[in-house]
């Protein structure tokens, strides 16, 4: 193993070169020594286990060292992780393969994101310790996230009094279970509108491009919960397009790989995505939009025309009603509300698309689910199913869980953690302060020692043994776990479960001959189907 102690032989160079000639040919020798020193430093960096960010034995602070692949000078493992075309070049797959080659790599593997030290765990036990540890309650902040005001929103606010306040507001007001169920009927209406748009497309084109429908429904559903606002594609086309373009731009800026997040000085010479410039253009648009909605709520409150039951109030009403220590200023409200749109829209839509793709590929599973839904509906008098009905349907729950296992929307849990102090793990490894930590949930979900036959879509596995997907069981924790677990998990699960149930109840889904289902992945902010699902949706009467 090469360490900084290996530099000793630099001192023997003069003797090696010959001391007489040294003085005569100083102009040759000095640059040579400099180059040799540089080469040696680069070698030392590059040969540090885990890469340059782990030099000087940073990986050996604990009783058990953290091993990792060698990285390149300056870039560390960034080139390998950037993601290239091809199934096995996506970061979660690259990291899973590297962990398998590294001693104890599944438990924890060190690597370098440019100059930032990082660890990744692909093991439920170590993952639990990381996600639950108070030492990992922070998140590294991307440049674009800071520029887009997310530092003041729940997801990126540094762990501290302000973030704790936001979590409290989220748990006791925004995502309280009674509020999620009070919004159930409105979600069902959004879903019914989606179902009729799908039926119309099937009639006209003979097949359905499901993604567009899911994205519109998820935007409407989240806009309803957050802003109390829903869009009609025909009537509100202009405002809807404006909102969609802001969301698209925000997703691109947040999801884009940005070299200067990891090699900070690069931003001065190389910023092909023009991140700062684009963020500076987007932020005033977002502020104008969200402030307009807040002003409208204030006006209605003053007029007394905003009369809804407390549990049916939207997020703007809730934030405006906070008082005393909990009162937030307007810019913070803009950041919090805007973040909800980002977190809530793509995850639910893309997870439903993955599940529907699996159901198209597995007609037997689709039929079993349809029978369960039909039985439940006939028991309930033939009407729609409520959230509470659906929570009692074991096969439906199993299908959603299997979808989450096969295709966790954040294979690396999307948002990493950052250690604020040295964290000692029970396996003897020590993660130093200032280390970015990731959990490779995709690797855990596809690990044959954790899941039997992991690459097969088989909801039945959850009928035999139930697993809590809300963060209690790290074998399947697509919403993360611990203090920063996803606060929107109940809302996300309720939405996806309802959509899958209604789509299967209303249509028979089959493969479109001209466009077979392709399960290739594309990792952006979340992991989506690279080729959007096109399928034939035969209306059921
Ligand atoms: C299928 C749907 C969803 C999935 C798979 C998902 C997944 C995640 C994951 C993996 C995290 C990081 C957790 C951790 O670090 O332990 C997270 C955080 C977060 N999610 Fe979700 N999410 C979903 C839906 C939603 C929805 C609907 C909302 C809100 C409308 C939301 C709001 C948030 C927020 C605010 C955070 C940051 C929490 C913090 O840092 O304290 N998510 N989500």
UniProtKB/TrEMBL annotation:
Cofactor: heme
GO biological process: regulation of timing of plant organ formation; reproductive structure development
Signal peptide interval: none
Keyword field: Developmental protein, Growth regulation, Heme, Iron, Membrane, Metal-binding, Monooxygenase, Oxidoreductase, Transmembrane, Transmembrane helix
Entry's family note: Belongs to the cytochrome P450 family.
Top-rank taxon: Eukaryota
Protein's UniProt name: Uncharacterized protein
GO molecular function terms noted in the UniProt entry: heme binding; iron ion binding; monooxygenase activity; oxidoreductase activity, acting on paired donors, with incorporation or reduction of molecular oxygen
InterPro entries to which the protein is assigned, alphabetical: Cyt_P450 (IPR001128), Cyt_P450_CS (IPR017972), Cyt_P450_E_grp-I (IPR002401), Cyt_P450_sf (IPR036396), Cytochrome_P450_78A (IPR051996)
TM regions (residue ranges): 26-52
Binding site for heme: 486
């Amino acid at each position: 193993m090469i360490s900084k102690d290996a530099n000793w032989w630099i001192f023997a160079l003069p003797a090696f070169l010959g001391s007489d000639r040294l003085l005569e040919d100083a102009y040759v020798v000095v640059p040579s020594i400099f180059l040799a020193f540089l080469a040696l430093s680069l070698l030392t960096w590059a040969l540090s286990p885990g890469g340059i960010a782990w030099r000087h034995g940073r990986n050996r602070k604990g009783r058990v060292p953290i091993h990792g692949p060698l990285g390149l000078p300056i870039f560390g493992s960034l080139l390998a992780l950037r993601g290239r075309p091809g199934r096995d070049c996506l970061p979660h797959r690259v990291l899973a393969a590297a962990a398998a080659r590294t001693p104890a790599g599944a438990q924890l593997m060190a690597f370098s994101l440019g100059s930032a030290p990082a660890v990744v765990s692909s093991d439920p036990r170590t993952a639990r310790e990381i996600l639950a540890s108070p030492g990992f309650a922070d998140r590294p902040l991307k440049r674009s996230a800071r520029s887009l005001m997310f530092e003041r929103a729940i997801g990126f606010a540094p762990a501290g009094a302000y973030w704790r306040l936001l979590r409290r507001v989220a748990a006791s007001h925004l995502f309280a279970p009674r509020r999620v169920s009070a919004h159930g009927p409105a979600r069902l209406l959004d879903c019914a509108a989606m179902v009729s748009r799908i039926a119309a497309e099937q009639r006209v084109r003979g097949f359905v491009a499901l993604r567009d429908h899911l994205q519109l429904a998820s935007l409407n559903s989240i806009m309803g919960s957050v802003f109390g606002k829903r869009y009609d594609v025909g009537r509100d086309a202009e405002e809807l397009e404006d909102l969609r373009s802001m969301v698209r731009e925000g997703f691109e800026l947040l999801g884009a790989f940005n070299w200067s997040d990891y090699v900070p000085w690069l931003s001065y010479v190389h910023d092909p995505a023009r991140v700062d410039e684009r963020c500076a253009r987007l932020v005033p648009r977002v502020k104008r939009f969200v402030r307009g909605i807040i002003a409208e709520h204030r006006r209605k409150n003053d007029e007394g025309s905003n009369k809804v039951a407390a549990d049916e109030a939207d997020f703007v009403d809730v934030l405006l009603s906070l008082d005393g220590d909990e009162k937030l200023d307007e810019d913070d409200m803009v950041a919090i509300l805007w973040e909800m749109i980002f977190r809530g829209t793509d995850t639910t839509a893309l997870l439903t698309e993955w599940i529907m793709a699996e159901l198209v590929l597995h007609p037997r599973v689709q039929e079993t689910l349809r029978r369960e839904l039909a039985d439940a509906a006939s028991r309930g008098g033939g009407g729609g199913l409520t959230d509470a009905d659906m929570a009692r349907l074991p096969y439906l729950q199993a299908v959603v869980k299997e979808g989450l296992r096969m295709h966790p929307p954040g294979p690396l849990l999307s948002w990493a953690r950052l250690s604020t102090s040295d964290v000692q793990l029970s396996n003897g490894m020590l993660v130093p302060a200032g280390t970015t930590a990731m959990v490779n949930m995709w690797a855990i979900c596809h690990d044959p020692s954790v899941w039997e036959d992991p690459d097969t879509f088989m909801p039945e596995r959850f009928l035999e043994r139930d697993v809590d997907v809300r963060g209690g069981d790290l074998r399947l924790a697509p919403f993360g776990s611990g203090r920063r677990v996803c606060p929107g998990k109940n809302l996300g699960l309720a939405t996806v479960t309802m959509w899958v149930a209604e789509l299967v109840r209303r249509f028979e889904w089959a493969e479109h001959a001209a466009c077979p289902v392709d399960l290739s992945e594309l990792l952006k902010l979340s992991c989506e189907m690279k080729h959007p699902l096109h399928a034939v949706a035969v209306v059921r009467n």
